[in-house]
Amino acid sequence: MSITLRQLEVFVAVSEEGSLTRAGESLGLPQSSISTQLKELEGLLGLKLFDRHTRMLRLTEGGMQILPLARKTLADLAAMLDGSAQLKTLERGRVSIAASSMQAALVLPRMVKFFSEMHPGIKIELLDVTQDDVIQMVKGGAVDFGVGTAFGDHGDLSMKTLWSEPFFAVMPHDHALAKKRSVTWKELQKHPLIGSRKGNPVRTALEFSLASEGVSLKYVHEVALPLTIVGMVAGGLGVGVLTGSTRRLSESMGLVLKPISQPRLEREVVLVLHAARSLSPAAKKFSDALVSWTSLKRSRYNEDDNDGHWFCNVCYQFGCALNHQM
């Protein structure tokens, strides 16, 4: 037989009350049950815990040494139960997210803000990394989930499509292609291009799709981050091949974006989860809200959507009853 929490509760109550009867009253147990629990505990410990003195019970030397240990055990259990309740009710917790740089900079901060307002006890850690790092960090357990682009089979990871965004050619306003309504992939082959490094999931997916069309892009500059591509385009080094998430950044730097057709291709932004690991209540709440937002009936992600409608849906998921003005 093992020592039970009830036996420890009885021992502490008797030591505090000095009486089996009063200890029973405080715990809502009959005196006979108190006596039985106490005798069983003494038998398991091989120690006499109390001496009877007139009508009072006094702790023996062994009992005095055991009492602080019993109190600490009960306090630790209470703290554990209280902590688990707070985690379940989202009163405290932690959510860690690895996101590709553009999603981390231009999309997720607003959601983090609303979530933090609704659940101030939860710490949100947003890590801006490369596309490749998103996959590796989720695989390694460094984060709860990731937001990025995945291509191919990653075995122990599961992907949920969040939204799709089209590819654009990004260029200075005085570029020859800037006068066109749209450009084709074959037209881009005639110009110096700036794109992601080989092996980047976005580039890999793009090359796979273009190969079936007999198109192969040659880049004069290959970099890790979209921000660098935008900066190099602004510096006059070539035409950037980017997706719609960079629209605001590109236009803020005086650049123009032209949709690319023949064929019109899109990259999928996905929620990256580890199939073998469960999310904490806080992480699941955030990821569910993210999926809910992006499940709205839109065929593609529109970074210029400022009507606030999707935020209403996000706020509903986060438990917010307020109307936010965008």
UniProtKB/TrEMBL annotation:
Entry annotated with the keyword Chaperone: no
Origin superkingdom: Bacteria
CDD domains: PBP2_LTTR_like_4
Alphabetized Pfam families for the sequence: HTH_1 (PF00126), LysR_substrate (PF03466)
Keyword DNA-binding: yes
Molecular function via GO: DNA binding; DNA-binding transcription factor activity
InterPro entries: HTH-type_LysR_regulators (IPR050950), LysR_HTH_N (IPR000847), LysR_subst-bd (IPR005119), WH-like_DNA-bd_sf (IPR036388), WH_DNA-bd_sf (IPR036390)
GO cellular component, one term: cytosol
Segments forming domain HTH lysR-type: 3-60
Keywords: DNA-binding, Transcription, Transcription regulation
Similarity comment: family membership: Belongs to the LysR transcriptional regulatory family.
Record protein name field: HTH-type transcriptional activator CmpR
Organism listed in the record: Comamonas testosteroni (Pseudomonas testosteroni)
Lineage: Bacteria, Pseudomonadati, Pseudomonadota, Betaproteobacteria, Burkholderiales
Gene from which the chain derives: cmpR_6
